[in-house]
Design a protein that fits this description.
GO molecular function: endopeptidase activity; serine-type peptidase activity
Low-confidence stretches: 1-155, 304-320, 592-597
Mean pLDDT: 75
Family: Belongs to the peptidase S41A family.
GO cellular component, one term: outer membrane-bounded periplasmic space
Distance between the termini: 45 Å
Structural class: alpha+beta
Organism: Thalassoglobus polymorphus
CATH architecture of one domain: Alpha-Beta Complex
CATH superfamily of one domain: 2-enoyl-CoA Hydratase, Chain A, domain 1
CATH topology of one domain: 2-enoyl-CoA Hydratase, Chain A, domain 1
CATH class of one domain: Alpha Beta
Oligomer: single chain
Keywords: Hydrolase, Protease, Serine protease, Signal
Number of strands: 23
Shape: globular
Length: 654
């Protein structure tokens, strides 16, 4: 197993996904909450009657591939964003189960009676008079519904991308402090990296047409116009667009030098005719070049010097950090502002009494009506300990409250419970693959183990992915041997093959839940479990992302260039880009599949699979490690095929 991978993965979904709203801080060591607890006995790997709920112990050789030294940063699966929200958890060491491990309190079991949860009453006061705000102009149709959206969900509509960039405080801050000379140098540097590192770089002619077309679209984009004080002078704009279009079709660039010449010419033209800063034009030109590469590549400016709350951010994306600073809310866009779709436990927001469904209508006395989530996030961001005033609308009433930004721990695990206290079916939801995913998951599994867990349902529905090395480490928790994933790219370091080790492998019978929101790292894990016949995959077809991105530090400016550098392949050698993972047991989608504590068809199907003993048999067979099977879905067991067909017929009648 490689000790460190310098790579990441990402995914595209719809624009209405939630944006995590908290500005980041530099990561700090998590507080340890360690309690003494007896260690379960580990069975040897060769035993024919081992305890299937306990880890195995033996170790077998594994493949290690060398990588380039000192080049890229860690691969991550999440686009650069300003915020993240995940509830905290106790810290646990990163490698294997130990005699000391954290206390982890599971939530109330989904299928057991539970007392009615009482939401704390708001601790803020209703204003005697509602402030009269200066309302901003309504958001344009081109502005993304979700602003800059979470994780891999990078927008694909060019106008959406343009709006996202021109409402992002980080990108706007970078633009304010960057000169034309720096942007010229940046373009040269980015071009060299693209030519050397991208998995399939398009020709310069293709890149230039995309850049000029991006400028043509930007001149019509209301967010670009507002950001650059460009009035909608239709005649003048049309003249400039016509000249850009003519150049796009008549003067193709053949190399980086000619491309820079076109960038400088375009900047001078738009500046002279429309008064837009040359730097703004050059930056949009460069972003158009990068957009031409693929859905996932992007320029990511560092916020160290310019964005609100800039001193709080390090080189990692917010949702992959273990510690961040913020108020602890998860938002979606709303015509009147931003609506809460989640509140972090033990956060300033939860302490204030905010809850899902509350509508933020103003921040520090300024209305957020019509603003994109990028802008709202910028207003909510700030330094540790600073105060923020929110105006909230709930059930037709408005309230005002003050809270301070605090450090919040980011955990991958957002749900741990015993689904069935008689059958001892444990449940864990893994929200993403971040730096602490293996530790988070092990902590949750130890908790369930101490409650007598005999089988596990691991929920990856809606998990957009994350760090490649964490996908491998989490897979290694369950696989005693066999290939986990392989990657193939243009460069030597992008061609890898990762195999499982037997050290401290959990042999618990396993069911994995996936859906069309499960991508990249989630798909790596699900395919590894499925094709090694270690467990059963239940749900719906996964997203099918299948490419790897690498973050390269830039020398000319403070920032990163994220490039697609490889594709990844399942244990059987199947290319996963566009294909994803097909579940062993398909379950019809329902509105309640991911969010309801009532009937959940996926979980019901998972429990039925456990009842048939299939995960237990697979776990026992996998422990022998005779040879990898690498079966396609549904071929592992004829009795399983018969069972799944009958179960699907039964469920279709619900």
């Amino acid at each position: 197993m490689k000790a460190s991978l310098n790579n990441t993965i990402s995914k595209l979904t719809t624009l209405n996904l939630a944006l995590f709203v908290l500005l980041m801080s530099s990561p700090t060591q998590a507080d340890e909450t360690i309690t003494q607890s007896p260690q379960p006995q580990f069975a040897t790997a060769t035993s024919s009657n081992h305890d299937v709920s306990s880890p195995l112990t033996s170790r077998v050789p594994h493949t290690v591939f060398p990588t380039d030294q000192g080049m890229p940063l860690a691969r991550e699966d999440v686009d650069l964003i300003k915020t993240a929200v995940v509830p905290g958890r106790a810290f646990v060491p990163s490698t294997t189960p130990r005699e000391t491990h954290p206390t982890y309190t599971p939530i109330t079991p989904r299928y057991q009676p539970a007392p009615q949860y009482q939401q704390p009453a708001p601790q803020y006061q209703q204003p005697t008079t509602i402030p009269q705000y200066n309302q901003p102009a309504p958001q344009s149709p081109q502005t993304p519904a979700g602003g800059e959206i979470l994780g891999n969900n990078k927008p694909t509509d060019p106008q959406v991308k343009i709006s996202s960039r021109n409402t992002d405080p980080k990108m706007l801050g970078f633009l304010r402090t960057t000169s034309m000379q720096e942007l010229t140098s940046l373009y040269h540097e980015a071009s060299r990296m693209i030519d050397a590192k991208h998995v399939n770089p398009p020709a310069y002619e293709t890149r230039m047409k995309a850049s000029l077309n991006n400028l043509i679209l930007a001149l019509d984009n209301p967010d670009f116009q507002r950001a650059n004080n460009l009035s909608s002078q239709s005649t003048a704009i049309r003249q400039v667009q016509a000249e850009l279009s003519q150049t796009m079709n008549s003067q193709p660039a053949r190399n980086a030098t000619e491309a820079v010449g076109l960038m400088q010419w375009s900047a001078e033209l738009v500046n002279r005719q429309l008064g837009v800063r040359r730097e703004a034009v050059a930056l949009e030109f460069m972003n158009g070049t990068i957009d031409a590469l693929d859905k996932y590549s992007s320029f990511m400016p560092e916020s160290t010097a310019f964005a609100p709350g800039a001193e709080l951010e390090n080189r990692k994306t917010a949702s992959l950090e273990e510690n961040i600073v913020g108020i602890g809310v998860e938002l979606e866009t709303h015509p009147m502002g931003a609506i809460l779709v989640g509140v972090v436990e033990n956060s300033p927001a939860s302490g204030l009494g905010l809850k899902k469904g509350d509508l933020i209508v103003a921040v520090n006395g300024q209305s957020v009506r019509g603003l994109g989530l990028n802008t709202v996030a910028g207003k909510l961001g700030g330094s540790l300990g600073t105060q923020i005033t929110l105006d909230i609308e709930r059930d037709g009433q408005r309230y005002r409250g003050q809270l301070s930004r605090q450090r919040i721990y980011v955990s991958s695990v957002t749900g741990t419970e015993m689904l069935d206290n008689i059958k001892k079916v444990g449940y864990v939801r893994l929200k993403q693959f971040s730096e602490s995913s293996r530790k988070d998951l092990e902590a949750a599994m130890w908790s369930l183990h101490n409650q007598g867990m005999k089988s596990l349902v691991l929920d990856l529905r809606g998990n957009p992915g994350g760090l490649l090395d964490q996908a491998i480490e989490v897979s290694d928790l369950f696989l005693p041997c066999g290939t986990i994933v392989s990657t193939k790219g243009r460069n030597y370091s992008d061609n890898t093959s990762e195999t499982a080790t037997r050290e401290k492998t959990w042999s618990i019978p396993l069911v994995v839940l996936v859906d069309d929101g499960s991508a990249s790292a989630s798909e790596i894990f699900a395919a590894a479990i499925q094709e090694n016949e270690r467990g059963v995959v239940v749900g719906r077809h996964s997203y099918g992302k299948g490419t790897v991105q690498t973050h390269f530090p830039l020398q000319t400016v403070s920032g990163l260039l994220k490039l697609t550098t490889a594709k990844f392949y399942s244990p059987a050698g199947r290319e996963m880009a566009g294909s994803g993972v097909t579940p062993d047991l398909l379950v019809r989608a329902t509105e309640k599949n991911s969010n309801s504590t009532d009937y959940d068809a996926d979980i019901e199907a998972a429990i039925s699979v456990v009842d048939q003993g299939i995960p237990s048999r697979l776990a026992q067979q996998a422990a022998n490690c005779n040879q990898p099977k690498y079966q396609t879905p549904g071929q592992a067991n004829n009795s399983f095929n018969n069972f799944t067909q009958q179960l699907q017929m039964n469920m279709s009648g619900r």
